[in-house]
Amino acid sequence: MGISRRGFLATPVALAASQAIRAAERKPNVILITAGTWRAQAVPWAGDTDVSVPNLARFAAQGVTFSRAYAAYARSERSRLCLLKGVFPHILAMPDAPVEGPLSEPPTLATVLRGAGYRTAAFGTRQADEIVSFVHSQGDAPFYVQWYMENVGSGLMERTNPGDLHVRENVPAELQSRTREDMAVFYARARTRDRDIGEVLEALGRTLKGNDNGLNDDTIVVFTSLHGEQFGSHSGQGDDYVYEETIRIPLAIRYPRVLKGGTQNDILISQVDIMPTLLTWCGAAIPDVVQGRDLSALLAGQAGERPEAIYAEGRLGQKDEWRMLVHG
Q1: How confident is the model over 177-191, as pLDDT tens digits?
Q2: Distance (Å, rounded) from C-alpha 14 to C-alpha 8?
Q3: DSSP for 103-126?
C-alpha cells in the first residue's frame, strides 16, 4: 500500500530530517563572556589547582580550550576594543594613538551582528538573571550577548587562606606574601563569577517551548579575558607588562554543531581573531577594516594555513612603549 506525500511528511523519520535541515540553516546564537583581567595560567585546563570554578571547568570540557591565545594590548580599555572590533591597538582612534587612526571607527561585533538580523544586548557584572531573561525571551531572531565582568568584588567573598596558595617560580621571595594576598582576592572573585556563569549555562540547557533540546546546540559560548596580570611574576604588579602572565589570555569555545568538545588546541590565536571568526560562523560579512584572521575553518578541522606568529603592543605613546612577537 502506498503512502501519500502528506503522510510521508508526517512520519518520524521525515520530521527528524526536516528539523535537522532547519537546525543547519539556523544562525547560531552567541554569548561572549569577557572576564576582565584573568590570566591564562589561572584556569583548570591550564593545571591551576587553586582555582575553584566547577562550572567553567565543565564548560571547557564540553568545548575547545586554547593554550596559546594572546591579548593584543595589555590594558583593559584598549584591549576590549581590540576584541570587539577585530583590530590592533595602534589604529584605534584614542588620545594616545601613535599613528593616525582609520577614516571611520571600525564597527563592533554587536553592530555587525545587529545588521545581520541579530538581537543584541550588553550586560555587566552580576547580571546573570538579566541574561537568562534575555536569551529566553520570545522571538525567532538569533541573539548576541556581550557579557563583561569587571574586577570588582565584595568583602563578603569567601577567600582561600593565602598561605595555602601556590605562586609561580618567577615570583621573588620578598613579593610572595603580597602575591598570595592578591591571589586570594582573585580566586574569591573567580568563584563568584563561576556561579554566575553556571547559572547562564544551565539556562541554555533548559527545555524550551518548541525546542526540546534547549539552546545548547545552537549557541556559541566564548569565555576569555581582556588580559592577565603579573601577581609578582618577574617582580611585576598589575598589568601592561610584556610577559606571558599579562599578555596570554584564557580562551575556551563551545559550539557543539561545529567544534569537537573535550579537546585542546595549541594554535596561535590573537584576541583580534575572535571577532572575524564569530562573524563567519554567524553568516555575517567581515568588515574590510578588520585586521584579525578568520580561523573558523581551521578550528573546525578543515584545511588552512596555521598562524605562524602573534603580535601585541603595550604602553603606546609612552617612553617605554613596547611591541611583541610570539613566533613558533
Answers
A1: 999 999 999 999 999
A2: 7
A3: SSPPPPHHHHHHHTT-EEEEE-TT
The Cα–Cα gap between 304 and 280 comes to 15
End-to-end Cα separation, the chain, in angstroms: 66
Distance CA 36, CA 14 (A): 47
**Residue found by looking up cell 532547519 in the block:** 22
Per DSSP, the residues of 69-80 read EE-SBSSHHHHH
Confidence of residue 91 (pLDDT cuts 50, 70, 90): confident
Span 51-67, pLDDT tens digits? 999 999 999 999 999 99
Give the three-state DSSP class for 247: helix
The DSSP 8-state label assigned to residue 235 in this structure reads G
pTM of the model: 0.89
Separation of alpha carbons 232 and 171, rounded Å = 5
